[in-house]
Amino acid sequence: MVRETNRHFKFDWITIVLFLLLVGFGWLNILSASHTGTTINYFDFSQPFGKQLIFIFLTFGLIILLLAIDTKFYERFSSIIYIISMLSLVGLFIFGKNVNGATSWYGIGSFTIQPSEFAKTATSLAVAKYISDLNTNIKTLKDQIQTFIIIIIPAILVLLQNDTGSTIVYGAFFFVLYREGLPKYYLTIGISVILISILSLKFGQLITSILAITLIITYHFLSKKKLRIYQSLLIALAAISISFGLKFFYQSILKPHQQERISLWLRLEKDPEKLERMKQTFAYNLNESEKAISSGGITGKGFMEGTRTTGKFVPEQHTDYIFSTVGEEWGFLGSALVVILFVLLLLRILHLAELQKSQFSRVYGYGVASIIFIHFLVNIGMVMGLIPTIGIPLPMFSYGGSGLWAFTILLFIFIKLDSNRINEW
């Protein structure tokens, strides 16, 4: 459904400029991380930087299409978009191509496309549509469950494809639901489970259980909102169950490489020889990434002058580990600039989301900001060793057509929705 009139010309150019800056700076780092030899043919489409140029060029056509479509289309057909997206995820189990152990791609000639990237946009539209329905009240348990189902379906389908990184991104919708009135105890439960899990792995189940019980008893007697005895007992029992149940999950459910990544992150391994073997095997990328970033210093070694980048010390550096190129060649100042650009983009999206006249647009805007935030936080944290290694791209920065187009669609649908507010002001 494309407008026959051209009344809506105004868009938020601050958001668009920030997007273009990130895409442009991202391509420069892809070029540096993937080029070979002393001379560079910028239009060598057999190289990642050449392919990314094609993806960027096609992105402009995609943007024009997204901005030409009537805003009502996105809300009216959000359910159909969601269903089609879920079917594309299911189809991977039949026609999918396995890449690096994950069956997350469809092969189209020499190119591949990853539907899980686009499923995030479809889920954002579906969540916005459901929450903005007049009959929906997110404070009721029934509507909470139905919203969770919309989010959990793609998360499970992606997880079954052995793509843990993309699965974690769906946790971003918690921020959306919290903004729309999800009860605060969900936040308390979520933070508590994470803390208990980390403490149990780091200090053991017994110490964690004793600490949890101590905190519950202290809260019971000192808090103005006193809990009943049976409530305190249930909370204590839940904390102990999580602490001891985590051991089974860690040892029996998680795969060996996932256990080792968490072990390395929490410094659980004390044997120096085993630590060195870990750094030379599954943690090799992370180890080399940290070395590249630290070698950049304050100002960096200069564009295309990074010795660890040009020496290809970090495998596939132009994808998930692209930020290590920024750290080595542009230093702390360049890295800070990238972080500032992302923060400005996120703040701008949140600001625009709060200005929306319709709940659908506001909820979708928060979905956009939350998804970009999780990608940004996890990717940079992973590359710097601050969180366990999780394979997800840096938005608008990492190499890949699916990722670039998916984030373009995600963002520019919101820019189009926001245009209604601008033009009707």
List the keywords.
3 domains; disordered N terminus; 425 residues
Radius of gyration: 23 Å
Mean pLDDT: 86
- How many DSSP-defined strands? 3
Number of helices: 18
| Global shape | globular
How much helical structure, as a percent, in the residues? Answer: 55-70%
- What proportion strand? under 5%
Low-confidence stretches: 1-8
> What are the secondary-structure elements, in order, as H or E?
HHHHEEEHHHHHHHHHHHHHH
In terms of quaternary structure, what is this? single chain
Measured between the Cα atoms of the first and last residue, the distance is: 24 Å
- Count up the domains: 3
Q: Give the helix/strand class.
A: mainly alpha
Largest beta sheet, briefly? 3 strands, antiparallel
| Largest beta sheet: strand ordering | 1-2-3
Notes on the protein architecture:
The chain has 425 residues and is mainly alpha-helical. It has helices spanning 13-34, 48-68, 71-76, 78-95, 115-131, 141-160, 164-169, 173-179, 185-203, 205-222, 229-253, 256-265, 272-280, 284-295, 307-310, 322-355, 359-383, 401-423, and strands at residues 97-99, 102-108, 111-113. The protein has a 3-stranded antiparallel sheet, with helices on one face. A hairpin with a 2-residue loop joins strand 2 (102-108) and strand 3. Mean pLDDT is 86; it is low at 1-8.
